[in-house]
Amino acid sequence: MGEDLELNFEEYALWSIIAIAVISLAYAVFLIRQMLKESEGTEKMKRVSNAIRAGANAYLNRQFKAIASIILILAVALYLTAQDGGIGFGRATAFVVGAIFSGTIGYVGMNTATRANVRVANAAKRSLGEALRIAYRSGAVVGMLTNGLGLLGSVVIFMIYRDRAYEVLLGFGFGGTLLALFMRVGGGIYTKAADIGADLVGKIEKNIPEDDPRNAAVIADLVGDNVGDCAGMAADIFESYEVTIVSAMILGFAAFGHMGVIFPLLVRGIGVFSSIIGTYAVRVRSETENAFDAIKRGFNLSAVLSIIGFAVVAVYYANDIRFFWATLAGIVLAIMINYTTEHFTSIEKDLVGELAKSTKTGAATTILTGLAIGLENSVWAVIIISATIAASAVIFQSAGALAIAYGVSLTGIGMLTLTGNTIAMDVFGPICDNANGIGEMAKIDRKARRRLASLDAVGNTTKAITKGIAIGSAVIAAVSLFQSFTQMTGLAGIRVDRVDPLVFVGFLIGGALPFMFCSLIIRSVGRAANLIVEEVRRQFREVKGLWNGTVEPDYARVVDICTISAQKELIALGAIALLTPIAIGLLLHEEALGGFLAGAILSAQLLAVFMATAGGAWDNAKKMIEDGLYGGKGSDAHKASIVGDTVGDPLKDTAGPALNPMIKVINLVSLLIAPLIIANEQMTPQVIIAIIALVAAILIAIWYSKKEAYIGVDESILRRR
Amino acid sequence: MGEDLELNFEEYALWSIIAIAVISLAYAVFLIRQMLKESEGTEKMKRVSNAIRAGANAYLNRQFKAIASIILILAVALYLTAQDGGIGFGRATAFVVGAIFSGTIGYVGMNTATRANVRVANAAKRSLGEALRIAYRSGAVVGMLTNGLGLLGSVVIFMIYRDRAYEVLLGFGFGGTLLALFMRVGGGIYTKAADIGADLVGKIEKNIPEDDPRNAAVIADLVGDNVGDCAGMAADIFESYEVTIVSAMILGFAAFGHMGVIFPLLVRGIGVFSSIIGTYAVRVRSETENAFDAIKRGFNLSAVLSIIGFAVVAVYYANDIRFFWATLAGIVLAIMINYTTEHFTSIEKDLVGELAKSTKTGAATTILTGLAIGLENSVWAVIIISATIAASAVIFQSAGALAIAYGVSLTGIGMLTLTGNTIAMDVFGPICDNANGIGEMAKIDRKARRRLASLDAVGNTTKAITKGIAIGSAVIAAVSLFQSFTQMTGLAGIRVDRVDPLVFVGFLIGGALPFMFCSLIIRSVGRAANLIVEEVRRQFREVKGLWNGTVEPDYARVVDICTISAQKELIALGAIALLTPIAIGLLLHEEALGGFLAGAILSAQLLAVFMATAGGAWDNAKKMIEDGLYGGKGSDAHKASIVGDTVGDPLKDTAGPALNPMIKVINLVSLLIAPLIIANEQMTPQVIIAIIALVAAILIAIWYSKKEAYIGVDESILRRR
Description:
The structure is a homodimer of 721-residue chains. The first copy, chain A, is mainly α. Chain A has helices at 3-36, 43-81, 85-123, 128-161, 165-206, 218-256, 258-279, 291-318, 321-345, 350-358, 363-395, 401-415, 419-441, 446-489, 501-542, 555-626, 636-679, 685-706, 709-712, 715-720, and one strand at 494-496.
């Protein structure tokens, strides 16, 4: 092939990827239109659904407003980080675009989900199959948006900046990541504060069922599912999708030139088609069929199609079968993580059975057994990820260090190829949860409610699986970024050694960061939940006619309290994630910063899986008992299982998932400041003053977040709505 | 000074250190004799005390028997690790001696404690001051033994092997460390299984007070305090004492020749005198004085004396003030860790108050708040240790890499100079706990029991402080060993990098190891506790006359069940600690093994402090409520606080402390096999077979430990006693 032909093929490939991205977005619009044609059911159902949508949008609006100024300040800072004005402008713009894309996915996704929920509830009156179809395809909307916007952004940036694209891509990745951090943490705090608050007063104090309309926190709880599992998770996976592409493009360009850049984009393009085709395999024909099996069928079909596509592209475009093996390793990784997640958290497995048994001897043994299960799975997850990294090393062994690093990032590309399916499965969760809640509140017929309950249970499983993939992909993405860091700083590697004990210091502090993060988040949820408890109690006490159902509670006020306190709690956490790597880099230099990143990746991975697993196992152990085991609902075993579930909730839905964006933020910040640190080996007084200011800012932020939140919330703000 | 004179001074110094070691041992014998002169009180008291001693000795005898064969096998293996037969023999012998020394400290210490307890109980009838004096000085016995044997072994080995001593010292360190692992883990499982078993049936099911003589597990519980806090903790600190000396001698010899070896020995010698003098400051003159203040007074006096001594030796012997700063940094580190431990776990501080408040909303919020507190303190501990390492780097900045590494190990030397005081404070705990239990069971007069209860509470605080020092010193010791590893393998350092992703793999797996360890240990405690619960229930059900107090329960049988199941559980844990570094080293080579060690040190440090802190905070929150807060005993808040305490117990007394010897075992194993790994870069079929066998052994051990223990315990064995 002549060079001209190759170049032409490259142009052609890039334009087709843009076309694929557009197809992906068009398909999302098509799915939305299809969904909107469905009937919304009764007035009562519409009212509940509207309340959820209003609450969710109120939350997002406030969140976006709060973040907007931070985004603008950081855009200016990013402009300054680049030595070249043109690149600086591109980077700042890409950063804003990345953030806007992530925000759009969250916004559209949540509005789709909150419109789909009532339609699913209504369709359940007719058949299980129709309810499943609407719910899954509405989830697919978010998946296709993620694919489309992720691909579009990366390709356009590459086409504009070509050989210097990686400098701009960093900005794009950072925009998505930063928004994900805020959406994940804010959404996580919101959802669990509402959940715990609703349960503590409703289920435990007042002894009324979940989703009882007299509970003032019930709408906030339903909003929370959207805010956390829909907007938060979509932003999280969008970010991994973006970041794996960015690091694969950086490393691929260094190792294989343009081919190394285009191959991952083509692989992702294949994923779009596989996911679209997979959508149509998700259907049940009768009431007795299992909805989860149908979803799995869709996933497997997409996986097989993708693998065939990988092989074709590797052989005919890259002329290198190793590229195929590396992407295949990514899909295998995803499947293995699904398998262990299921083994440790699924109702049908021994371990959750053992956990359920431990509830018989009380809450303490329940907690201990859950902790042991979580700790163990974190080990297996590490072993699987290590095996994948080792596999990349073996595959590219002969091609040198850069190619091996590229191999690891291709694993991430392969793993997230099926993002369309993964996000569809995830968003399916809150849609069914909400549909079930709407069914409960609008008191629709029993048969429909049984169908909705079964879909809700399937949603719990799919959510758990997505969580495993999110964590696994976050670690692979972080490792790839870490490798890009060593590539960009020109370090041969990060030495943890006796020559420079400061590297060990960086390493220890990096490892401690996730612990600090989790500690602060758990406290945040606790503080926010306390506010909800007080408000719900107050309404029961003060609002006449509420208890006998003649007067509706003030749902909006609880939604507002959740929103405000989640925003407040974000400040310290965001500050820590953004400022710690800068402080370490400036104070201890780039090798120590490398140690810091390595330590943080390690302990975040361990903690995240530990928390997700323990939380999932406790949740399902409770379900087993609610299904009648060991005395069923109301028994002492049930009470112990509720303690386990309540402890697990903020671990699995707030603290654990927040670590995903956190490790990517610190890696990206490190990448962005690396040139600055290297240029600044000699500390000028200005740098020292800057560091002192940074540390002071971190300390103030921590102090601020520790203040009891109800002192800080201004009653007049709460009343305004 | 001429060279002859210097050499003469060196010999003179070495002989004086031997003399100091002998003085230390003689002082221990003197303290034992003094204690034995005290009266044992009534027949009833003697009977209880004898039962505790019999149980404790039965445990230790069985443990020693079980370990003996492992020690012998490993001694042969160690003989083979050295290339030189003479060194091999010395190393194997030193290993056995190290193990015997550690065992002796445990054995003598436990027998001292179990003889002292009844005398303390009896002295409490007379005055608080006498009870305090007997209890503290009996604790000091164990401290002086540790000092004496630790110094004696190191100096004698150095005097025999001189320039090659470090090869033999490794064996000495390993012997102590291995025994510590078994004593710590076995003792930890024993003590918490007995404690949880006694509480679950006694306090919760039967509603009888702690230490009620009708509870069949009450003697096992009292035995457990000795087995865990006395024998286990003494072995743990002895090991850190030994290992810091060994690594300081290795690094000191490499950096500063003989002077680098003798300086740490002299510093430790000073510690012996300071501790002896400090003993006499621990006294109260009236009933209103605070016993804890008296103990602190003793500690502070010893600290001041030591610091003066350090300065003298640094200036007049080493002629290098930097040596003084490094050892001083160690003492500062110990004080800082005491401070943070107190801040996060002490009753008088805000955090435990907040935790106590969270019990009002139930067990779930209690657990969550405790987790947050534990996670946070692990961060501060890391920051303090990092600051110490950074300080060593600054102090020896100009002297090169080896000197910096030596500086870190001198910090460990400084930190453990006051081992005499530290261990005395620790062993004081179980003595007072037992004395209080004996007082309860023998129903002595109320005034004496009040005195004993107050001493027991002081013991809880001193135990918590010792735990902090044990963890801190374990990390410093492990970092020093890690540096010795890089020194011995001739690696410039361990690179976590893109050049060799296997290092990252080793690093991830190393980080996962402590999680696996904790998971297995928590399950072990659960299984063993289940056996106790069943046995205590059975006795209440089947033994006639037990409930109304006319017949004594079969205490010995419960002691036996505890002993057997603790031994069984040890197998998998010991196998993992010994075999994993060998497998990693052989499979992935020395750089990856270095990554493995770094990862393990990091995550062990974080987990250990997390667990110790959360456990301590829950324990004290419960105490606050039992003292009358939020409804006091029997209230819902109290029940929630019991859940917290029960969850915290195996974390703080079994899983967390077990990580201390674990990280030292893997470091020492790595040091011992390093030459083998370097020689074996090319894998022979034999090596591959050996690795497969090792991995199989690990898997079998894990599988074995997971079997439900009550299937495995042979009833006939239990009945034999």
